[in-house]
Design goal:
The protein is 24% helix and 19% strand. The chain is α+β, with helices and mostly antiparallel strands and 233 residues long. Helix 2 (117-123) runs antiparallel to helix 3. The longest helix has 17 residues, at 95-111.
């Protein structure tokens, strides 16, 4: 007689020929967790975030919108996963490759699994015309690399990536920054001054690790006030 298995198999045992078969009653109902996969249909409503990118190479800003799907809603296993991405701007110069990029990234999102590798892949793209310095003193090799930077921010917000530095390390860097400013006080820039290095002390050098103009001489060695990289280890 055929038996229909209506629940998930959580255990099994081999019955010998000379032993009678025993019926095992399940003690706990298996929890079916919903995971991201390519056959998941798009819900009518998605929650998302929009990020603004303003580069010195264009007078028009670029807006990156990433929409998330919420899996296992209302349970202890509720998670957010990126589902689609849209990139819009009044500048139509990059329309063709930006449209292709949004389709490819969205397809990777819906495929499921680990999509964090996209951050490094996008950041490794260099513009042959040269990069640009962001407000705050960080150098960007290309617009594509900054889109990767935005993607990293979003993945950290939804818990798919974590910060390399914890709150104690950040507090330490803030303390070092305050000590540096106290030793070498600088005049404040005007409120309307578009100084790309205003986020860090004037005279800071470019950090070779995070490409931010935030490395200063402290305690006898160069220390980055953005990522914490230090020649002293």
């Amino acid at each position: 007689m055929a038996l229909k298995i209506s629940s998930k198999i959580v255990d099994y045992s081999v019955v010998k020929v000379d032993e009678p078969a025993q019926t095992v009653e399940p003690t706990e109902t298996a929890i079916q967790l919903e995971e991201m996969h390519e056959k998941l249909k798009r819900p009518e409503f998605l929650e998302g975030s929009t990020y603004k990118i303003k580069t010195p190479t264009s007078e028009h800003a670029i807006y990156v919108t990433i929409n998330d799907v919420i899996l296992n809603h209302g349970s202890d296993h509720e998670i957010r996963r990126p589902f689609e991405i849209f990139i819009n701007s009044k500048n139509m110069e990059h329309y063709q490759w930006i449209s292709a990029l949004t389709l490819i990234i969205s397809a990777v999102f819906r495929k499921g699994g680990d999509c964090t590798f996209l951050v490094e892949e996008l950041r490794s793209v260099f513009d042959p015309k040269g990069g640009y310095m962001k407000r705050g003193g960080r150098w960007m090799p290309s617009l594509v690399a900054e889109i990767g930077d935005v993607l990293e921010q979003h993945l950290k917000r939804i818990g798919m990536m974590v910060d390399e530095m914890d709150e104690h390390q950040r507090a330490y860097l803030e303390q070092k920054r305050a000590e540096f400013v106290a030793i070498k006080p600088q005049g404040q820039a005007a409120a309307d001054c578009d100084d790309s290095t205003a986020a860090y002390p004037p005279g800071a050098q470019m950090c070779g690790k995070c490409h931010t103009q935030a490395a200063v001489q402290m305690d006898g060695c160069m220390t980055c006030l953005n990522c914490g990289d230090s020649k002293c280890g």
